[in-house]
Amino acid sequence: MHETHEPTSSRATAYAPTDRTVPTRSANRASYDKELVHAILDEGYVCHLGFVRDGAPVVLPTLYGRIGECLYVHGSTGSRPLRMTGEADPGLAVCLTVTHVDGLVLARSAFHHSINYRSVVVHGIAHEVDDPEEKRIALDALVDHVLPGRSQDSRPANKKELAATAVIRLDLDEVSAKVRTGGITDEPEDLALPHWAGVVPVRAEYGAPVPDPGLAPGTGLPDYLAVL
Amino acid sequence: MHETHEPTSSRATAYAPTDRTVPTRSANRASYDKELVHAILDEGYVCHLGFVRDGAPVVLPTLYGRIGECLYVHGSTGSRPLRMTGEADPGLAVCLTVTHVDGLVLARSAFHHSINYRSVVVHGIAHEVDDPEEKRIALDALVDHVLPGRSQDSRPANKKELAATAVIRLDLDEVSAKVRTGGITDEPEDLALPHWAGVVPVRAEYGAPVPDPGLAPGTGLPDYLAVL
C-alpha cells in the first residue's frame, strides 16, 4: 500500500500532492486546487468508482454527491462494493473518477489528436455512513447533484427506503484534477498539410423534459427544469 | 482470482456470462448481446480504465478504439498502466467501462430517482501490442472512434511517434452491458403528490468547429465534421 501522508488541512486551499496523485505524464495539466476540484465535481453527477474484488479491478458508473470535503455514493445494501465495506467496516479502498469532455482536439497529425477535458481522481478509503442524519443529508446531496433544488421538490426517503439504501463516504484528501484546454499542437513541418485542424466543442445538452402522463393536475414545470 | 471459463466463441451472438458479469442488482438491465455491446462501445471514445497498483484501485479516463472483438487503449510508453504490462508482459488485469447518460429520471420520491444510461463493463487481461501493423491499425481505430473517417484525413504517425506510443489490447470476452430506458417508477401512494415527474433527455452536443488560425489555404470543413 501507499505511504501515509499528512491529511490535507481543511483550511488549505489545495490538496497535498502524493506519490499517486502526481502524474507521470503531462504534469503541467495536473492541479490540486480545491476550488477547481470542487467545481469539476459539482458539474457532474456520474462518477466511475473503482475497487478491487478478488484481486482484480472493478469499475462501475454510479451517482455521487459532494458536501464540503466529503463525497457520497449510494447503492442498494445488497450491492457489491457496499457489501464489501462489511460489518466491522475496515473501509474499502476506492478510486473515484469524474470526467467532463469539453472538446475534440483535431491536429493535422494523428499523433497530436487529443481531447479537451476536466477530470478529478480521488483515492481513499470509503466507509459506510451509519448516522441517519448524515445519510439523509447525503441522499439529498446526491439528488441535488443531478438537479440543484430537486431534493426539496420530491418526497423524502421513508424509513424503509433509508434502510434499503447504503451510503458510503469518501473524504476528499488525496485528490487531483487534470485539465486540458485550448487549441491544437502540431509539428512545425505539418502546418502546411491540407488537413482541417481545430477544436470541436462538446457539452452535455438537455432535451425538453418529458412529463410522466400521470402528473397531478396543476403540476407545472419547476423553475430548476425550465432553466436547463 | 476468478474461475476460468470457456472463451466466448467468435461466432456466438452473445458473451458468456460469468460470476463477475452477472450483477447482484437489477439483473434485468444486464445484457450480453454482442450487437448491443458493440453499439454502446462504438458510440463512445472515452472509457474509464481501472487497474490495481500497489494493491489499490486506480481509475483513469482514456481514449479507446474497437476492432472486432478487440479494444485498444493507447498512451505514452512512460505512462503507468502501460509500463506495468512490463517487459515479459504477463499482462495487466483491467476493467474497462464505457458509460453513456441518456436521461435524468425524476420520480416523485427521492428514492426512485434514477438515470437512463447505457454502459459496458469489460474485464480481462490487457497485453501490449508489439506487431507494428496491428499498432498502426489500432491507432487509426482510436482516431476514428472520436470521429469516423478522421484517420484518413490526418498525417499518420511516423516511426518516432509510433515508438513513443504504447498500445494495449483487451479482448472482448468477459463483457456485459447494462441499460436503463423508459420512464419513472413511483409508488402508487405517491402518484397524487404535486411534484413534477418525468424524464429529461441528455445527450452530447457538438458545437461549431473552431478552426486553427493557421489552416492551409483552401482547407474547408470536412464532411465528417459538417454532419455533427
TrEMBL record, chains A, B:
Domain of life: Bacteria
Region (Disordered): 1-27
Matches recorded under InterPro entries: Pyridox_Oxase-rel (IPR024747), Split_barrel_FMN-bd (IPR012349)
PANTHER family assigned: 5-NITROIMIDAZOLE ANTIBIOTICS RESISTANCE PROTEIN, NIMA-FAMILY-RELATED PROTEIN-RELATED, FLAVIN-NUCLEOTIDE-BINDING PROTEIN
Name the record gives this protein: Pyridoxamine 5'-phosphate oxidase family protein
UniProt lineage: Bacteria, Bacillati, Actinomycetota, Actinomycetes, Kitasatosporales
